[in-house]
Amino acid sequence: MAKDSAGRSLGLGFFNKKTDICFRLLTRNVNNEIHSAFWNERIHAAYMLRKKIIHDGTNAYRLVNAEGDGFPGLVVDVYDDVLVISITTAGMERQKQNILEALLFHLKPTVIYEQSAGRSRNLEGLQDQKGIIYGSNPKSRVRVLENGYRFDVDYIGGQKTGFFLDQRINREKLETLSKNMTVLNCFCYTGAFSVYAVAGGAKKVTSLDISKSTCTAATEHLRINGFPAHNHPVIEADVFDYLRNQQDTFDLIILDPPAFAKARKDVGKASRGYKEINMQAIRHLNPGGILATFSCSNFIQEDLFFKIVQSAARDAQANLQLLERLEAGPDHPLALGHDEGRYLKGLLVKKM
């Protein structure tokens, strides 16, 4: 229980004196008991919210978004009948069994895979944990639907939990903008933005990624959605080198790179990287072309990212028109006052 300087109770939560964030609030109701029923109610609330906001034709979404759903240090992603969980706080680690029981009761998955690893977990004094913790599945992939499009998600070996669920509404947005456009999808990963752009009527979509395996997956995703890859090339390449050495220009460019800043000390170097990649992209935009540019680095704040893109435009000697600020979808809710949860930020701009 947390108390103020006058001794008044503030709420119940996780306390860990080993970390910079020593207290994580769970509830302001100090009469609550943090037991299985408490977590069962919260999982139920998260599940009912997703039933309202996730429509037919989509069976891949985020069920629990940490503090945004009242679960500090817990993420749960749904891929059809497979759940992937990530635990990053010691308090949530101690509640794992209660969480698993609630998930099994409400979602009835065939497999639950744990992917609990990384710097945050280590700071909490926890060892990495990866593996199937419920059910059995000899395969590491599951085929999912997002707005009716098919994707094979590698939930064991893929980035994050296998798929960038946070970009779903931005993929939908760019699909509506892609008609008759030439599109360059940089850092394409397994090609989800590319599939949406082709579906939206793009004349040609070129996809770039440095990883051979993800390029193979992107090609396959185009194929299984009925889009011949020979019309929409997938190129294994370093995006920085490609943009520096190519003269082609495009009507729509998508920049969704991995996090350049893994820690606060990386901000300076990451800022230079974001500026360079955005400057090169702006130079490769046709007049009137559109750039969708993102940062998923927690330590790159939205205002800083905005200034980076402005500076890149100046160096590219271009004027940009801001169309919209972009962020994660509603299955990634945020707790008001917890700005750190807003890791994904993006800008949709037009070259004037």
Structural class: alpha/beta
- Binned, the helix content reads 25-40%
Task: Write the CATH architecture name of the largest domain.
Answer: 3-Layer(aba) Sandwich
Counting DSSP H or I runs of 4 or more residues, the number of helices is 10
- Order of helical and strand elements: EEEHEEEHHEHEEEHEHEHEHEHEHEE
Q: How can the largest sheet be summarized?
A: 7 strands, mixed
- Count the E strands: 17
Low-pLDDT windows of residues: none
CATH superfamily of the largest domain: Vaccinia Virus protein VP39
What's the alpha carbon Rg, rounded to whole Å? 21 Å
Number of domains: 2
Could you characterize the architecture of this molecule?
The radius of gyration is 21 Å and the shape is globular. It folds into two domains: 36-143, Transcription Regulator spoIIAA, CATH 3.30.750; 164-351, 3-Layer(aba) Sandwich (Rossmann fold). A hairpin with a 2-residue loop joins strand 9 and strand 10 (149-154). With 352 residues, the protein is an alpha/beta fold. It contains ten helices and 17 strands. The strands form four sheets. The protein has a seven-stranded mixed sheet, with helices on both faces. It has a five-stranded mixed sheet with strand order 4-5-6-7-8. It has a three-stranded antiparallel sheet with strand order 1-2-3. The mean pLDDT is 91. The relative contact order is 0.10.
